[in-house]
Amino acid sequence: MAEPRRLLPLQMSEVSYRINGRTLIDRIDLSIRTGTRTVILGPNGAGKSVLMRLAHGLLEPTGGQIRWNVPEARPREQAMVFQRPVMLRRSARANIEYALKLAGVPAGQRAERAMAALARVGLETIAHNPARVLSGGEQQRLALARAWALEPQVLFLDEPTASLDPGAAREVEAIIDAIHAAGTKIVMSTHNLGQARRLADEILYLQAGRIEESTAAAEFFRQPRSAHAAAFIEGELPWR
Ligand SMILES: Nc1ncnc2c1ncn2[C@@H]1O[C@H](COP(=O)(O)OP(=O)(O)OP(=O)(O)O)[C@@H](O)[C@H]1O
Ligand SMILES: [Mg+2]
Fold it and tell me: Which of 50, 53, 207 to probe ligand 1 with, by most ligand atoms within 8 A of CB?
């Protein structure tokens, strides 16, 4: 099989997103590279979700440019998982099979790949349960299994543990680490500092639609350069 063409790096140049006279993302320059876990950190309303949606292509920037390494590739080998995953009214396994179908996986391979994906997140025993009756933590693991089954080069995760208790959140973090270890680029947003410390290789600190810092995680936590980031780490609510 031919090597998949590398989607990364993803370059954003002067990217803005304005709506109804408000600037939600303000002239952002960044480069998303392969190999690291990138965490977008910032307070509520900073623009993390909007930035992830722009990067994934769910929103079009109103200014600037977003360029993938292979702009013409369709479908792109990328996936996104949201805070509250949307599940179809079908079994857990059928939810994954449906995603595989949309991705063009031949019918004969879907069941096996879906079961393998469920096993990787520890959900094989509930494969036949309706997805919508699973607990919040199980649904999020299912959402990760569904995304992982597509073997994306890049996975965007928007606050994947925001509505979970600490135990369920740790299970999800372990899965995110495993997806990273298997070679998928992780781009995750969170406003949970502990989670950022545990998972991030590099931090993009976002505040009021601007990237205020883009640094190796260890350096960011040792000595943040922006006053907003320092206040955020200290647990103060940064002014918006
Ligand atoms: N489609 C939209 N139309 C108008 N305003 C929007 C739209 N989407 C987001 N916003 C606003 O843009 C700002 C940034 O929103 P965003 O959801 O990206 O923040 P966030 O950093 O993800 O916050 P949180 O941590 O609460 O998830 C918010 O003030 C939000 O109300
Ligand atoms: Mg958000």
Answer: 50
pLDDT at 1 over 70: no
In a domain, 161, yes or no: yes
pLDDT digits (tens, 9 = 90+) for 168-178: 999 999 999 99
Confidence at residue 5, expressed as pLDDT on a 0 to 100 scale: 82
pTM for the structure as a whole = 0.94
Specify the CATH number for the domain of residue 49: 3.40.50.300
The best mutation among 20, 22, 48 to test binding of ligand 1, ranked by most ligand atoms within 8 Å of the C-beta, falls on 48
Whether 45 is covered by a domain: the verdict is: yes
Residue 207 pLDDT exceeds 70: yes
Q: Which domain does 36 fall in, by range?
A: 10-233
Measured in residues, the chain has a length of 240
| Total domains, the chain | 1
Distances (CA, A) of 171 to 16, 126, 153, 160, 195: 35, 16, 22, 11, 12
Q: 25 CA to middle of ligand 1, Å?
A: 10
Q: Does 240 reside within a domain? A: no
pLDDT attached to residue 32: 96
Q: Which atom of ligand 1 is nearest to the CA of 53?
A: 18
Half-sphere exposure in the Cβ direction for 61 (13 Å, CA): 21
Q: Is residue 153 part of a domain?
A: yes
